[in-house]
């Protein structure tokens, strides 16, 4: 119908008949003479004085022909029909019509998953769950059961109901195919398809598999900090973990919330006890949940061993009392770990625990993520606090008072009048400067 408005004249040659007429006559409902013609099996439309741009029409025809079962030519060139029911795609018959399962068909890479699907009716697109160009499943609906709205036939009648049924059929057929894949492959190969199983909500197929997919476990890769909007604490495990290693305690898996929520003590415990952190994404009846260790709920105790002294740290962004000691002990679920080389921030006491072998200032990042109220990362403040805390630790653990003082003093490069001069300082009992006297 739209072609009549797009040109001055139109000719149609189809099924043994031919006519040629000005479109103005058609729109005026004038009678048209149809002549007999020797039909070659191709319906041909010729538009004269075509008004739209040809490249725009070609783009639309390519889109419409993508699932068409009959060859479509534009200006003598055959258009691609990659989703046609008679294309090279391996379609299967269902109650909806012909279905192609993207990535799950015989001979395809089943690790290549997509939740998108495309519905066609009589070869024309009637629904796309996402962008039309996205790869995905293809369903050619049975035209005896499903109907589209006239005149353009670009939208289904009862669309919501058809889509719901389509999703059910996709889910069912995908599960059947995944069950076959499971029976044909080793457990090592099958767990590689975790993302595909998750896409099709078939994670229960992993319940009796004795390997854990890499995607559900993570290691604490370095000193744990408040992440803010970054993700730096966890890294995926490199290999699947076996059920026997979990059962025998060779690998311990913890249920552990974000450090921002549960605090640094629990994360330091998990890090030093070499726990794997569970990333939710298994069926509720999976065997792992019988061995999952809860590090969120039970009480955790902090014991300071051989405290030496206390000092107050005042940084640009964070401040707090620091307890210097030989080491500290964390106890959770009856399990303990002694730590003598990594400081920890105790939120309950709003202070820092600094063991004897601490050598960095990273602990300030357990006290703050260094994001301000406008979600801006304050990198300069973070770096300054880390450096200042490092010097603070060195000064408080120095054997000689003069070494401690030198560490705590700022630089004076911006004040040339002080260069090459000597001064004597007097400090009060609480560390305040009482007097500064120049020495000749």
Structure explained in plain terms:
The chain is an alpha+beta fold and about 450 residues long. It folds into four domains: about 1-80, no CATH class; about 90-185, no CATH class; about 215-295, no CATH class; about 300-400, no CATH class. The protein contains twelve helices and 25 strands. A five-stranded mixed beta sheet has the order 7-8-11-9-10, sandwiched between helices. The protein has a five-stranded mixed beta sheet with strand order 14-13-17-16-18. Strands 19, 20, 21, 22 and 23 form a five-stranded mixed beta sheet that branches. A hairpin with a 4-residue loop joins strand 22 (about 345) and strand 23 (about 350-355). The longest helix has 26 residues, at about 160-185. The radius of gyration is 36 Å and the shape is elongated. The model has no long low-confidence stretch (mean pLDDT about 90).
